[in-house]
Amino acid sequence: MKSSLLDELIDALRCLPGVGPKSAQRMALHLLERDRPGGERLAAVLQDAMARIGHCKVCRTLTEHELCRVCADPGRQRDVLCVVETPADVLAVEQATGFRGQYHVLLGHLSPLDGIGPEELGLDRLETRLDQGEIREVILATSTTAEGEVTAHYIGELARARGIRSTRIAHGVPLGGELEYVDRGTLSHAFEGRREY
Amino acid sequence: MKSSLLDELIDALRCLPGVGPKSAQRMALHLLERDRPGGERLAAVLQDAMARIGHCKVCRTLTEHELCRVCADPGRQRDVLCVVETPADVLAVEQATGFRGQYHVLLGHLSPLDGIGPEELGLDRLETRLDQGEIREVILATSTTAEGEVTAHYIGELARARGIRSTRIAHGVPLGGELEYVDRGTLSHAFEGRREY
Ligand SMILES: [Zn+2]
Ligand SMILES: [Zn+2]
């Protein structure tokens, strides 16, 4: 039997993380019965976002512009660079700390076993930024997982080779923790407690 | 500061039930970083569903056609009518039982205190269906709340006045339920509704 449009909607909602068949059904019925304007707005914004949001050409975080909000802000410090793994990590640091410098988003981490080396991670872009001479401190804010540590070590060496100070966020972040899921207080303390690397 | 398209997407996702700021952010980043085709499909289906899904002109459940799948199916029994409160209840009955008859969806329940009487609930439509003479049994599958009971009673009287049999779904201990944890009202009903074994 051909599936109904309601069935299609329930199925389409399952692309959202953590949404199983039961919650997808509840979401579809809620929008149809109680919040059509909300559903229409979500459809429009979603279409727009999927079509127009790309990566910042400087730091690689998500943005619909050529430069993200941070890179385009003339009021931020230009001599401190915070290196993180994902755009979610940028949001977490912005929301939890008073950091007012620049970011570099790796969109991953070094993982030799998966064939992800410095080249695959586009570390040449980071080297170019370090070579420009403005940056005086690199904050290594990769995850405290094994891959995150390897990545931090590698980037720390890149900085050292250029005479740039590098610091690692304090191990207030629980071991094996992904930055995105760390509570604000821990993350804020980890920032304040960063040390020479 | 003008909000970014990512902020707008996170905000728009919050129209979904049970989705707070943290999960909305997680959903937005997941779609943007890992499932753009899923996000594009969701946007298209959502737009289509909000624009085209209305109510079946016979039973009032949700459908994009004039008649829903059940009402349009010539293979279903035409002499049994199951009365429920919401389209979600139709899905629940279809998924859980072997019921192969017709439905009538009230889209609510009688609630005199809120000014919802038989007229506001469109019970004239139901009376018209009962008057057509095809229906021989009305299954009262409204909720087992106070309003649901009042509604079931009222519709039972409409059936009785036309010489149509009406039945009420059994109240009792949920399957797999331990007696100790069942509320008193349910247990009391389960006792009253006991049958030969
Ligand atoms: Zn940027
Ligand atoms: Zn119908």
TrEMBL record, chains A, B:
<comment type="similarity">
    <text>Belongs to the RecR family.</text>
</comment>
<dbReference type="Pfam" id="PF21175">
    <property type="entry name" value="RecR_C"/>
</dbReference>
<keyword id="KW-0234">DNA repair</keyword>
<dbReference type="InterPro" id="IPR034137">
    <property type="entry name" value="TOPRIM_RecR"/>
</dbReference>
<feature type="zinc finger region" description="C4-type">
    <location>
        <begin position="56"/>
        <end position="71"/>
    </location>
</feature>
<dbReference type="InterPro" id="IPR023627">
    <property type="entry name" value="Rcmb_RecR"/>
</dbReference>
<keyword id="KW-0233">DNA recombination</keyword>
<dbReference type="GO" id="GO:0006281">
    <property type="term" value="P:DNA repair"/>
</dbReference>
<dbReference type="InterPro" id="IPR006171">
    <property type="entry name" value="TOPRIM_dom"/>
</dbReference>
<keyword id="KW-0863">Zinc-finger</keyword>
<protein>
    <recommendedName>
        <fullName>Recombination protein RecR</fullName>
    </recommendedName>
</protein>
<keyword id="KW-0479">Metal-binding</keyword>
<dbReference type="Pfam" id="PF21176">
    <property type="entry name" value="RecR_HhH"/>
</dbReference>
<dbReference type="GO" id="GO:0008270">
    <property type="term" value="F:zinc ion binding"/>
</dbReference>
<comment type="function">
    <text>May play a role in DNA repair. It seems to be involved in an RecBC-independent recombinational process of DNA repair. It may act with RecF and RecO.</text>
</comment>
<dbReference type="InterPro" id="IPR015967">
    <property type="entry name" value="Rcmb_RecR_Znf"/>
</dbReference>
<dbReference type="InterPro" id="IPR000093">
    <property type="entry name" value="DNA_Rcmb_RecR"/>
</dbReference>
<dbReference type="GO" id="GO:0003677">
    <property type="term" value="F:DNA binding"/>
</dbReference>
<dbReference type="Pfam" id="PF02132">
    <property type="entry name" value="RecR_ZnF"/>
</dbReference>
<dbReference type="GO" id="GO:0006310">
    <property type="term" value="P:DNA recombination"/>
</dbReference>
<keyword id="KW-0862">Zinc</keyword>
<keyword id="KW-0227">DNA damage</keyword>
<dbReference type="Pfam" id="PF13662">
    <property type="entry name" value="Toprim_4"/>
</dbReference>
<feature type="domain" description="Toprim">
    <location>
        <begin position="79"/>
        <end position="174"/>
    </location>
</feature>
